[in-house]
Design brief:
Number of strands: 4
Helix content: over 70%
Number of helices: 14
Distance between the termini: 16 Å
Strand content: under 5%
Order of helices and strands: HHHHHHEHEEHHHHEHHH
Length: 333
């Protein structure tokens, strides 16, 4: 269990809220940003859940699915689509690409059982590096002709379509209704899948592969299904992230997203072998809340400092290290 890290981060978040008020910062504005970041990062964190449950542990190869989502977004711009039509087109294309790459990725992980953590990290980094070449040679015309920029704006396509949908303000806090509803819908679909016959079999295969195989469950198939689902959610997640951020970031930008998603779900109480929807929601809120409040508070306390970025690195890498040491100790025992 990850009770201690969750307690520490929770108390740290409350302390940041108090410091924000003491320093004269607008707490409603910061909480509004936290809700936006919850919705825009939530699906990416949710993508960790199927990987953990199917037995491949933390899927640090999320960039594989993220690349599919980015291609879907670029095709949306290329074909001149906008609004919800453009958003759902990008999601559809991203899901198709991620399904194929996720299946191949699952086959690879089945051949390298026991080394999933290192393999997923290596594959994720390798795909990002390979795509750095692809972004320069793919025949896209609308986002600047030959070669793509690192950052591509979504103002003319699907920027903020979820954020602005049914949004309202209460006590000075802006509620991004559409964004949160989309995240809730994704959580509901995953929750329903995990309670289906296939989802239960997948969780059983991840929890105890030998027992699952003895009961007739095809463990390798369940691992592939979990890997595909994780990869497809990553594709959807980066599209939601991009529409909320207002830009798509290519080249090296997707490289660390798997680590950030892993940190968030672990803060929420998940382990490297078990995870629930509640871990996703709680972890994303706490992690993004600390990052959102940490930057303005740090800048107010120490102007022109990099304390907030240092805290982000310490929190994300520290939580992953703690989870791996706990997991390793359990295995040795």
């Amino acid at each position: 269990k990850m009770g201690v890290p969750r307690l520490i981060i929770g108390l740290f978040f409350i302390m940041l809220c108090l410091l924000a008020m003491i320093l004269g910062l607008s707490l409603p504005s910061q909480l509004s940003n936290t809700l936006v970041r919850l919705g825009m990062n939530g699906v990416l964190v949710l993508a960790m859940l199927p990987g953990i449950q199917c037995g491949i542990s933390l899927n640090l190869g999320l960039p594989i699915g993220i690349i599919g989502g980015l291609i879907g977004g670029l095709l949306c711009i290329e074909f001149g689509m906008s609004g919800f039509t453009g958003l759902f087109f990008a999601v559809a294309v991203g899901l198709v690409i991620a399904a194929v790459t996720g299946w191949l990725y699952g086959l690879l992980l089945n051949r390298l059982k026991g080394s999933e953590m290192s393999v997923t990290t290596y594959v994720g980094f390798s795909v990002v590096s390979l795509m750095c070449i692809a972004w320069l040679v793919l025949p896209f015309k609308r986002p600047l002709g030959n070669g793509l920029r690192t950052t591509i704006g979504l103002q003319t396509s699907y920027r903020h379509v979820l954020n602005d949908f049914l949004s309202f303000e209460i006590f000075g806090i802006t509620i991004p209704t559409g964004l949160l509803l989309f995240f809730a819908l994704c959580c509901l679909m995953v929750w329903l899948f995990m309670r289906s016959k296939t989802g239960i079999a997948m969780s059983a295969a991840g929890a105890n592969p030998r027992f699952a195989a003895a009961t007739g469950i095809n463990v390798d198939r369940m691992r592939i299904i979990g890997t595909m689902l994780s990869t497809m959610l990553a594709a959807v997640g980066i599209i939601v992230y991009g529409q909320s951020y207002g830009f798509m970031q290519l080249y090296q930008a997707p490289r660390q997203m798997g680590f950030l998603a892993a940190s968030a779900i672990l803060i929420g109480g998940a382990t490297t072998s078990r995870a629930k929807i509640s871990h996703v929601v709680i972890g994303t809120f706490l992690f993004q809340g600390v990052l959102t409040l940490g930057m303005p508070v740090a800048n107010a306390l120490v102007p022109q400092s990099t304390i907030s970025e240092t805290l982000r690195i310490l929190i994300s890498n520290g939580i992953i290290l703690y989870a791996l040491t706990k997991s390793g100790g359990a295995n040795r025992g």
